[in-house]
Each structure stands twice: as structure tokens, then as C-alpha cells.
Amino acid sequence: MHPVSAADLAATWRPGCPLPPDALRRVDLDYWGFDGRVHRGQLVVHQDLTADVIAVFDQLLRLRFPIERMRTADHYPGADDELSMRDNNTSAFNCRDIPGTGQWSLHAYGRAVDVNPRLNPYVDRRGDYQPANAGAFVDRARTDPGMLHDGDPAVEAFTDRGWRWGGHWRTPLDYQHFELR
């Protein structure tokens, strides 16, 4: 794990964000790719969660739970969350609000992780979903590799450690989202 600065965080952080950069850490993690090989990725999380995140992703690797990519949101122009999700990018910190609410997302505190977001979309009560290219995966009867379902060992890797899963919420359903307050 590595301390980060405002420069390291690039477009994912700006003055006015609810958390200073020195409260965050970059964690380098191995993950099982869709190609059946081990890859190295990075997440930025709250400093208090680094050991937990390392343990969760170690368990996901041992389970050979496939992750398409894992890189910080600053790899996308303006740290655009929609672009990151469309790219099925597993990510954590991004100083942004909860869309349509004006309230900070737990991502802005480094206390949330989104896993394979194209395969595990956000679905609101009207049935609208994000990212825009996730339509096929709103059908949760699908069992494609990398999808998350209630009772899956990959979901339990988080929830057994006290994380909340957005797939357990009533509305919206946020199948990609795990958070620890």
C-alpha cells in the first residue's frame, strides 16, 4: 500500500472533496482475469480499509473470480464514472456524488468498491440502468462469469467482513457496489 497525493489522484480528487488525499492509500492487487491469467491492478481506498481490501481481493483471486480490469478512475477522461463502468473497470475512490442527490457517494470517502460494473449494473426503481452498455446484464438470471449473485462466494468475500452489498438493497439495486461505512 502506498500513500497518495493530490497529484497522484489527478481528476479523481479536487479541493472541496470530503477527504484529504493523505487519508487514502493506493493498493496494488493481483486479480484473476477473464483470460484465465493473473493480472496486477490498483485501487485507491481509505487508509483504514487497506487490510480488508487486500484480504477480500486475495480471496477473490483464490476463488478465481474473474475481473475484467482494475485501475484507478483517473485513467478515464475527467475520472468519468460512466466511462469507467462501461469499460467494466473495477474501481474504488472517486470524489463524486450519488447521481441525482447532491450527496457524496461513499466512493468519495474511499469506502466503496465497484466490481465488474458492466456485468453488475446499477438499476433504479424505474428500471433505468447504468452503465449504458449493461442492458443485457439487468437480467440477473444470467450466470456469466464475473456476475455477482446473492450467496455467491465472491459476494460473501465482502459481506462476511461486514461490507454491505448493493444487490441486497430494495431500490436502487446496485449489483456492482460494496461499501463499508
Describe the structure.
The chain is an alpha+beta fold and 181 residues long. The protein has four helices and eleven strands, in the order E-H-E-E-H-E-H-E-E-E-E-H-E-E-E. Helix 2 packs antiparallel against helix 4. The model has no long low-confidence stretch (mean pLDDT 96).
Keywords:
single chain, 181 residues, alpha+beta, three-stranded antiparallel sheet, 4 helices, 17% helix, 21% strand
Briefly summarize what is shown.
With 181 residues, the protein is of the alpha+beta class. It has helices at 6-9, 50-63, 81-86, 153-159; strands at residues 2-3, 24-32, 38-46, 69-70, 89-90, 112-114, 122-123, 129-130, 164-165, 173-174, 177-179. The two termini are 20 Å apart.
Taking pLDDT < 50 over at least 5 consecutive residues as the criterion, the unreliable ranges are none
Distance between the termini: 20 Å
Instruction: Describe the sheet with the most strands.
Output: 3 strands, antiparallel
The outline comes out as: globular
Number of strands: 11
